[in-house]
Amino acid sequence: MTRGQRRKLRLSKLYSFSCIRLHGEERHAQIGQRGYSRIVYCNDPDNPAAARLNYKGNHVSTTKYTVANFVPKSLFEQFRRVANIYFLIVACVSFSPLAPFTALSFVVPLVLVIGVTIAKEAVEDCQRREQDIEANNRKVEVYSGNGTFHRTRWKNLRVGNVVKVYKDEYFPADLLLLSSSYEDGICYVDTMNLDGETNLKLRQSLDVTSSLRNERCLQVFTAVIKCEDPNDNLYSFVGNLHYNGKEYPLSPQQILLRDSKLKNTDYIYGVVIFTGHDAKVMQNATHPRSKRSKIEKRMDKIIYILFSSLIFISFVGSFFFGIETRRDLVDKKYRRWYLRLDDTTVFYDPTRASLSAFFHFLTALMLYGYLIPISLYVSIEIVKVLQSVFINQDRHMYYEATDKTARARTSNLNEELGQVHMILSDKTGTLTCNSMEFVKCSIAGIAYGQGETEVERALARKDWSSEANEISIERIDSHGNAVHSGKPIGHSVKGFNFRDERIMNGTWVNESYPDLIRKFFEVLAICHTVIPDVIRETGDIYYEAESQDEAAFVIAARELGFEFFKRVQTSISLRELDYERGEKIERNYELLHVLEFSSSRKRMSVIVRSKADLLLLCKGADSAMFERLSKDGRLFEHATRDHITKYSQAGLRIMVIAYRKIEEEEYELWEDEFLKAKASLSADRDALLDTAADKIERELILLGATAVEDKLQEGVPKCIEKLAQAQIRLWVLTGDKLETAVNIGYACRLLRQGMREIVITLDSPDIEVLEKQGDKEALAKASLESISKQIRRGKSQLTSAKENAMEFGLIIDGKSLNFALTKNLEDMFLDLAINCASVICCRSSPKQKALVTRLVKLKLGKTTLSVGDGANDVSMLQEADIGVGISGVEGMQAVMASDFAIAQFRFLERLLLVHGHWCYRRIAMMICYFFYKNIAFGLTLFWFEAYASFSGQPAYNDWDMSFYNVFFTSLPVIALGVFDQDVSACLCLEYPLLYQEGKQNILFSWSRILGWMANGVGSSIIIFFCTTNVMVEQAFRRDGRVADFQVLGVTMYTCVVWAVNCQMALSINYFTWIQHFFIWSSVAFWYIFLLIYGYISPTISTTAYMVFLEATSPSLLYWLSTLLVVVSTLLPYFSYRAFQTRLQPMPHDLIQRKQRECAETKTSGESSIGTKDKLKHLKEDTEHSES
């Protein structure tokens, strides 16, 4: 269709347009009151009255910070953490005499750590700012008032401007539609960015403005809009247009929302109503609830434990300090006279020992503060960001067809990917492609279509031999010979996957009912709202449809010889085969009325005139169509119903096709009634239109049914099978009907051979009788009782089948789910569901999806992951612990609300089993190691203080202590968190059992955490006591002098640095040059720092002055004691791991051992039998623990 042809269409004369009905007359009376006070001066933004209103501009900002509030707000964000508040208090107190170190040595690392985190926030906010700049600087044509349009940036738009938007452009603000390239002001809008729906929406201007279609008309156009104030309701609008002295009510159908796109329309004119943050889409731009991983929550508890330990050992130290201080003065005699007790301060005063002990307690809180890792939070954030980069760049999760990669939209939940117990998934567009293909049909009681669907192949695997044979419907050619199933031969056509020699290539004329076949495909080619678009370069026709199903029907009709090629104001044109003459002809059908599809009507009809005949062509759901058939029109009903049942079992989407002839008198009477209903402005206009449509859509003649396949995405069955091997449960929550959902379950191997089904439904005769009676109270009571009985029956089946180890699948429909989720039944329902291997909830609403997700999350306390692709999945994604959005064909709404985005469901396997496992392991090991190294370091200060009579004297130099977490031990732990791998990605996928480490939280259990803490305590004891026993009483220098305080501190610190870095080397499974570099360079940097720092003036370096160059490095005892102490420190952990890998191996230990054995033997010989047996026993144990 050319632009000129499209411009002349006046579709509003044909459509009943339930989508363009006015609602809420009572709300229009509120105009001018509170909440309805906005006034827009159309085409006159410079009006003085408009200037006084001072509406917001069209500039938008989604940044978290501004230049003015960045510093205070970012600091507030950092000091919301308890640990950072503690460090801030210590930094402030460090300027007092209480501090055991210089203030600068503590403040500098704190500023560095906080500064890095703030810099990260700034970078992320700058990225958001760049997106805002891109949006604000898009161009749009604005009417200048002198009869011309000029292009300007979006951010310069003002309320009242008239803009011109072209096809495939986004609307820059919320607009009132004035007119379009269609004469009646119709336009098509893609709202994918708003609600995720891909079907196009129809909008229509008021008749009074539809003639404003050029610059000359706009030059004299002025009007005033009085409407509602800015709000977040996308689906309502209340306002009036005051134009030419008259008042016209406005509805949502005249409103074009910002960020939606103009489609199938050359251009529109519109008036800006809401700009910038007043636009409805921006009013909806709220931040989703903050999600935190379970590891992060447990880490907070560990911090509290360390704080408690810090307070405890500070109290112990101050207690003994008070006792020692009091004992220094006995009978006015000083026990330790060399301390000059006659010349002391309040910090050490034997006469006021309790006060001195209190001040010592404050000093100890600062001194032992190294138990709390100052760089923990910033290191974890850096690691998670880098992990997200690796997820984003994983080429194995790149989908070439859409040029989409996996994307971690938040880095907070990386490790949570390795702990998922339950996946709750949508079906359409998530497990399936949401790309409809015409595959089968039933015409005049004969089934056509010889291809096998994926569900049919699954049913064959299920070994339903009899049914599988039935589903392979009548595979015979026109000569009665058997035909092999397979894919259609010839060129591939999107939306068409049909093969049957009996009706293809015009051979349908030889069938028993050629007239009915022709009518069947004429209905498909005519009964729709599709617009044909001719590609000028090639001459090919492209169909722009409101839904994928409609496009598939029109394409199928074209491929079978009924090509829809032209649509004008009052007619539709087809190129079709005239079977009587045996040649192709062009046939025009006068289009009189379109009765469009709605969820309540479940059908669509068109009324056309073909030659002298008046025809009503209708298509709809089987539940709505069969009851409308005439007595004479039911000739093929029985056969068609059988075919529909088989198509449903094959997982296909069904549409029944029918028609009727209308007499002229009947049509004229009906049209009068229909036009009156259409023109009505009363509140019951919808009911009047539905009643009128219902009268004409009766006495239909059945032609047949279509079967459209929404194919499974590639790799879905294999992915689900792997997830099941990893003991991850998958529940499917879908809006499809029960039969379709169940058979898709078999296709994707969610339901498996030998699995018994527990079906909970309210489709029973008793319930149907109560529904017809209309007694809601009795119906609710009976339904609740029925569901309760079915759940109890299901639980008894599970109990009786436990000995047989039989698997069960639970299927429940939406009506039943409403009652199962009530407080009385939810616990019983959940108990039944979690004991079933698979769960399918069909006919589920978006709210029910979210409620089921919440129930599982709260009641089980396990990590839940939801995955979906449409706007109807958003609430489910936000409710789950982890939301994964599929960037499919249903828009980006789900992706925008998700934590992770992938292009295909099969990538979930790699996201969880590889990246999830790695991230969980890395973060868990990293945090445990952080606490280990800080306890090992911090407690050496405590042991030394006890050795020095709890004097508050630190064992190390101030800057040595400050740089411990920042320079000498931080980089190796970051490398661990980013690069470590216990096994390769291939082995993670080959052995899904490995995922149990995260599911059971083996690596971050309390026993594991306390074990690492105990290792830190043990390391501190070994380092301190071995060092003091080796160094203190031995001659250290050549002249026979023993090691002094400075030498002891440097030696002990050297042992700590070596021990914790070598401990890191022992813990790493997968070495890269980066890890080697970070570990050994951290050790080397300690020596370099000690050398350079020792050269600085003693007023700055204090105890470190020349200590390495002159005292420790020339001493053999220093090097030998370092070696002895480090080996002694590492020996307990090394021994523990050696015994564990042999006697109680973890899953990754077994797989590593098997990998080594296979590499050594290069065969599956006897040497690996023991490992295989252990893996088998481990699988049995995990399955037993799951049950």
Automatic annotation (TrEMBL):
<feature type="binding site">
    <location>
        <position position="619"/>
    </location>
    <ligand>
        <name>ATP</name>
    </ligand>
</feature>
<dbReference type="InterPro" id="IPR023214">
    <property type="entry name" value="HAD_sf"/>
</dbReference>
<feature type="binding site">
    <location>
        <position position="849"/>
    </location>
    <ligand>
        <name>ATP</name>
    </ligand>
</feature>
<keyword id="KW-1133">Transmembrane helix</keyword>
<feature type="binding site">
    <location>
        <position position="843"/>
    </location>
    <ligand>
        <name>ATP</name>
    </ligand>
</feature>
<feature type="transmembrane region" description="Helical">
    <location>
        <begin position="923"/>
        <end position="944"/>
    </location>
</feature>
<feature type="transmembrane region" description="Helical">
    <location>
        <begin position="106"/>
        <end position="123"/>
    </location>
</feature>
<feature type="binding site">
    <location>
        <position position="550"/>
    </location>
    <ligand>
        <name>ATP</name>
    </ligand>
</feature>
<dbReference type="GO" id="GO:0140326">
    <property type="term" value="F:ATPase-coupled intramembrane lipid transporter activity"/>
</dbReference>
<dbReference type="InterPro" id="IPR036412">
    <property type="entry name" value="HAD-like_sf"/>
</dbReference>
<keyword id="KW-0479">Metal-binding</keyword>
<dbReference type="InterPro" id="IPR018303">
    <property type="entry name" value="ATPase_P-typ_P_site"/>
</dbReference>
<feature type="binding site">
    <location>
        <position position="597"/>
    </location>
    <ligand>
        <name>ATP</name>
    </ligand>
</feature>
<dbReference type="InterPro" id="IPR044492">
    <property type="entry name" value="P_typ_ATPase_HD_dom"/>
</dbReference>
<feature type="binding site">
    <location>
        <position position="873"/>
    </location>
    <ligand>
        <name>Mg(2+)</name>
    </ligand>
</feature>
<feature type="binding site">
    <location>
        <position position="427"/>
    </location>
    <ligand>
        <name>ATP</name>
    </ligand>
</feature>
<feature type="binding site">
    <location>
        <position position="873"/>
    </location>
    <ligand>
        <name>ATP</name>
    </ligand>
</feature>
<dbReference type="GO" id="GO:0005524">
    <property type="term" value="F:ATP binding"/>
</dbReference>
<keyword id="KW-0067">ATP-binding</keyword>
<feature type="transmembrane region" description="Helical">
    <location>
        <begin position="1116"/>
        <end position="1136"/>
    </location>
</feature>
<keyword id="KW-0812">Transmembrane</keyword>
<dbReference type="InterPro" id="IPR023299">
    <property type="entry name" value="ATPase_P-typ_cyto_dom_N"/>
</dbReference>
<feature type="transmembrane region" description="Helical">
    <location>
        <begin position="964"/>
        <end position="989"/>
    </location>
</feature>
<feature type="binding site">
    <location>
        <position position="426"/>
    </location>
    <ligand>
        <name>ATP</name>
    </ligand>
</feature>
<feature type="region of interest" description="Disordered">
    <location>
        <begin position="1156"/>
        <end position="1187"/>
    </location>
</feature>
<dbReference type="GO" id="GO:0045332">
    <property type="term" value="P:phospholipid translocation"/>
</dbReference>
<dbReference type="InterPro" id="IPR008250">
    <property type="entry name" value="ATPase_P-typ_transduc_dom_A_sf"/>
</dbReference>
<feature type="binding site">
    <location>
        <position position="653"/>
    </location>
    <ligand>
        <name>ATP</name>
    </ligand>
</feature>
<feature type="binding site">
    <location>
        <position position="428"/>
    </location>
    <ligand>
        <name>ATP</name>
    </ligand>
</feature>
<feature type="compositionally biased region" description="Basic and acidic residues">
    <location>
        <begin position="1178"/>
        <end position="1187"/>
    </location>
</feature>
<keyword id="KW-0547">Nucleotide-binding</keyword>
<feature type="binding site">
    <location>
        <position position="869"/>
    </location>
    <ligand>
        <name>Mg(2+)</name>
    </ligand>
</feature>
<dbReference type="GO" id="GO:0016887">
    <property type="term" value="F:ATP hydrolysis activity"/>
</dbReference>
<protein>
    <recommendedName>
        <fullName>Phospholipid-transporting ATPase</fullName>
        <ecNumber>7.6.2.1</ecNumber>
    </recommendedName>
</protein>
<dbReference type="GO" id="GO:0000287">
    <property type="term" value="F:magnesium ion binding"/>
</dbReference>
<feature type="binding site">
    <location>
        <position position="426"/>
    </location>
    <ligand>
        <name>Mg(2+)</name>
    </ligand>
</feature>
<feature type="binding site">
    <location>
        <position position="872"/>
    </location>
    <ligand>
        <name>ATP</name>
    </ligand>
</feature>
<feature type="transmembrane region" description="Helical">
    <location>
        <begin position="302"/>
        <end position="323"/>
    </location>
</feature>
<feature type="domain" description="P-type ATPase N-terminal">
    <location>
        <begin position="40"/>
        <end position="103"/>
    </location>
</feature>
<dbReference type="InterPro" id="IPR032631">
    <property type="entry name" value="P-type_ATPase_N"/>
</dbReference>
<dbReference type="GO" id="GO:0005886">
    <property type="term" value="C:plasma membrane"/>
</dbReference>
<feature type="binding site">
    <location>
        <position position="428"/>
    </location>
    <ligand>
        <name>Mg(2+)</name>
    </ligand>
</feature>
